[in-house]
Structure formats: structure tokens, C-alpha cells
Amino acid sequence: MTDLVLSEICDGVAILTLNRPEKLNALNYALIDRLLTILDAVEIDGSVGAVILAGAGEKAFSAGGDIHEFSASVALGADTALRDFVMRGQRLTARLEAFRKPVIAAVNGLAFGGGCEITEAVPLAIASERALFAKPEINLAMPPAFGGTQRLPRLAGRKRALELLLTGETFTPQRALEIGLVNKVVPHGDLMPAALDLARRILRHSPLAIASILTAVTRGVNQSIAEGLLVEAEQFARMVPTADLREGLDAWIARRKPSYSGS
Description:
Elements: E1 5-10, E2 13-18, H1 29-43, E3 50-55, E4 60-62, H2 67-75, H3 78-97, E5 103-107, E6 110-112, H4 114-121, E7 124-128, E8 132-134, H5 148-156, H6 158-167, E9 170-171, H7 173-178, E10 184-186, H8 191-203, H9 207-220, H10 225-239, H11 243-254
Helix pairs in contact: 1-3, 2-3, 3-4, 4-5, 5-6, 9-10
């Protein structure tokens, strides 16, 4: 059987590729489960400092959920559809959002439905100029179910998000950049080099500090500023006894390049 998620490690970066190009990398249940398993392994792999999430082929990052599969779940009733489809998809996007290492989506083509929701959930995203985004669930008479009604308004603002959610219309990578869905739009051939460059610019820093920033932002962004500041202070306090903080301070004082142990 073809691997549903391809995995390779390149200079400390795990490149995970959704691999159903004949189905536009649609997210069937087996693919989601496989990706979650690989993410668990990557998170505890000390040789990996960052993740790039990509789509196989030239057409799609991911066209969203596998409609044939989840429609069968819907036919069995709400409890089954919630268990098999909604909870599985929300588990994936929550995992990506709270991952302790940077995850960069390299959006090479269609990012519809669940593919767009993955892009919303990951901390960072770079889009090819050939990318195309959409929130098309309303065309199926349903709301997004992998977190799209919650994350997109927080990224883009309520009115801009609602226009996309309620019309189901496609939007360009330039529009995705304008509303904060992606960090950068690049020529198609530069997509993976740009994603790797971003990962490497992050990886020169302390892995513990990277994790603490990701945690502080993820936990704090949906809280009040006072509660968020407490999260920030907590993450700082966790860094105080580490060798990484001592090395960062010593290297700055000595005007040398730091060397981090991740401890």
C-alpha cells in the first residue's frame, strides 16, 4: 500500500508530505491517523527541530476531507459523524496548533476545506503563487468541522472570515497573505527552498526557547491579556534554570555565537 504520509529528515527538518495526489491529497481517516502517529514520533525525536508539511503532486496541498468517506459516516448519524470525522479532524488541527516544534505549511496548490484548516492551525505557512484557498463547506450545506469557524476569524477578523465562510468562494494566495493566513507568497519553484530557509533561520536558536514561545503564543492568544501575560511569565520562569538561557546570555556578553544543548 502506498504510504499515505511520506517522511524524510533533512538537516534537522522533518518534511512530511500528504501523499494521495490522485485524490488531491484529500484527508481520509487513514491519512489523518497516520499523520498523527508520525507527529507523535517527530515531537520526541531529538534530531528534528522543525516540521514542513507539504502536499504530493503539482495540484494540491489538500483539497480537504474525503467526501465519500465522511458522507458514509454522516449517513450513520450524528454520533458516528462526530466521532469519526469531526473529532478526528479537530484532533489533527489541535495537534498541529499546539506542537512543541515549529510546523511550516508549504502550500503548493489547492488548500480547500480541511487543507485550509490545517494552514490556519499551523504556526507558519508559505504559499506558492499557484496556491488557491477556499472554505467550501457551505456548498455541502455544512459548516467547517476541523476548526475553521474558530481559527479563521481569529486570524482574519470576523467580517473577512465570514465572507469567505458564507460564500465558499476561492481566494488567492495574495489574499491569504493579506488576511494573515500565510506568512509569504513565493514563486512555485521557490516554495520548498523558502520553507527550508525559514525553518533553518528558526533552528539556529535554542530549541527550548522556541518551544516556550510556541507554547506562550498558542495558550495565550485566546485568553485575556492578563491571563496571557501569566502564561508568558510561566514560560520565562521555565527557561531560567536551563543551560540554554545561560549559554545565550554568556554568548551575548562574550560576543560569540551560542551553542545550545537543548537542556
